[in-house]
Specification:
Blueprint: E1 3-8, H1 12-27, E2 31-36, H2 41-46, E3 50-53, H3 63-69
Parallel strand pairs: 1-2, 2-3
Protein name: Glycosyl transferase, family 28, putative
GO molecular function: hexosyltransferase activity
Keywords: Transferase
Amino acid sequence: MSRIVLAAMGSLGDLYPLIAIAQALQQRGHDLVFATHRKYQDIIKSLNRTFHRLRPDTAPGDTQEIERMMDLKAGT
């Protein structure tokens, strides 16, 4: 089957729905990888899923870094 990367750059409210999607995809035989903040690594590992750190590694709530990344001229 396919190898699918599920990326979450936000809060747990973004991550948990992807976990549910991952369970359904795994039941269909897909290989899943999570790309998200280092802060969530333990959650992903506890579910026996592959974790890759998403960069920039900003923690949710780091408003100064998030504002810098979302700047219309200099951001992403």
